[in-house]
Amino acid sequence: MLLQNQRISSSSTVDNNNLVIPSSSSSAAAAFPGSRSMVNFSDANGINFSGKSFFRSFDYEENGDEDFNEYFRQPEKKRRLTVNQVEFLERSFEVENKLQPERKVQLAKDLGLQPRQVAIWFQNRRARWKTKSLEKDYDSLKASYDTLKINYENLLKETEKLKTEALTLTNQHLLHEKEMDNSESLHLIEQCHTRTQKFIPVEVFGERPLDVASIVCKQESFNSSNSDVVDTDSPHYINGLHSSALLMEPANSSHVFEVDQSDLSQDEDENFSRNVLPAMYNFSKPEEPNPPANSCNYGFLAEDQPVWFWSH
DNA sequence: TAGGTCAAACAGCGCC
DNA sequence: GGCGCTGTTTGACCTA
């Protein structure tokens, strides 16, 4: 405060002999002795002091006539409020940042300022507070934004990772399925071939492979001779043809179809189901180069199978 | 001492 | 008309 007081302009023209201490501000003058407001030309009661203000006591009594004269040589210049005045106003601002008329007058009295000065100070103070508040809000929002951005980026990374993982697993699954299909088809083909070898050896049919026509021919002769004993209610009666009929006994003595006698010694129906029937599938379209992998009857089209039984 | 910063003071506008 | 808000001006003060 002393330093501030020592910076008083040397161009002041105010006559210190006219300075008075406003009675209503005497306490404030003691409390804020360094004030040098250029516009404090009247006290709280509106009495015009023409630039002769509350700070007289400090400047005059403690700094002497020279400093005091210097100070008032330039009353038109803007003067900063003293530290004590600002502190007092700050405390008041913390209580209430808006000024009621009575409060304004009272503060002006206490500080030895014009009510308008107090109002302007509050106005500027509110503006500063708002600026700081906006800065705080901005920082807070920016921090929130940064946090959310980081979380979002992490989620994106996680999503990409999971997508890649899912794709890898899907590919592995498809590959595994393919391998399983191949091995199963090979196994089934092998199985079918084994059974064929067992029950329908190629040499049984001689040089001429057994064809559908010859089988059908034998079926017809068999059926014609045994039709009276066919039980259509039998579970082995398939589409009008008893399963036992498929144990086609050749019409003549030359056996073109010979079944293992050990198998025939058992139940004929079972033998048909277990041995003969699978073997018959072997007659299906041998020219098919790429049979389906997962079925023993892969060579048969759906419409081909009944043909085997019902060709006439 | 120039340039930057801060705060006092002001101007203009809208609201009640 | 008084008051608050916003933007601007201006002077005090600081610092490189």
The coarse silhouette is: rod-shaped
Write out the strand line-up for the largest beta sheet, numbering strands in chain order: 1-2
* CATH homologous superfamily classification of the domain at 83-179: Homeodomain-like
> Architecture of the domain at 83-179, CATH level 2?
Orthogonal Bundle
Helix content, binned percent: 55-70%
* Mean pLDDT reading: 55
* Helical run tally: 11
Task: Measure the end-to-end span.
Answer: 129 Å
Q: Percent of residues in beta strands?
A: under 5%
Q: Runs with pLDDT <50, length 5+?
A: 1-75, 199-312
What do these coordinates show?
Belongs to the HD-ZIP homeobox family. Class I subfamily. Its main location: nucleus. Residues 74-133 bind DNA. One of its GO terms (cellular component) is nucleus. This protein is mostly helical and 312 residues long. The protein has a domain at 83-179: Homeodomain-like (Arc Repressor Mutant, subunit A, Orthogonal Bundle), CATH 1.10.10. It contains 11 helices and 2 strands, in the order H-H-H-H-H-H-H-H-E-E-H-H-H. It has helices at 2-6, 26-31, 56-62, 64-71, 83-95, 101-111, 115-199, 212-226, 261-264, 268-281, 304-310, and strands spanning 237-238, 241-242. Strands 1-2 form a two-stranded antiparallel ribbon. The chain binds a DNA duplex (16 and 16 nucleotides) through residues 4, 7, 37-39, 77-81, 98-99, 101, 116-117, 119-124, 126-128, 130.
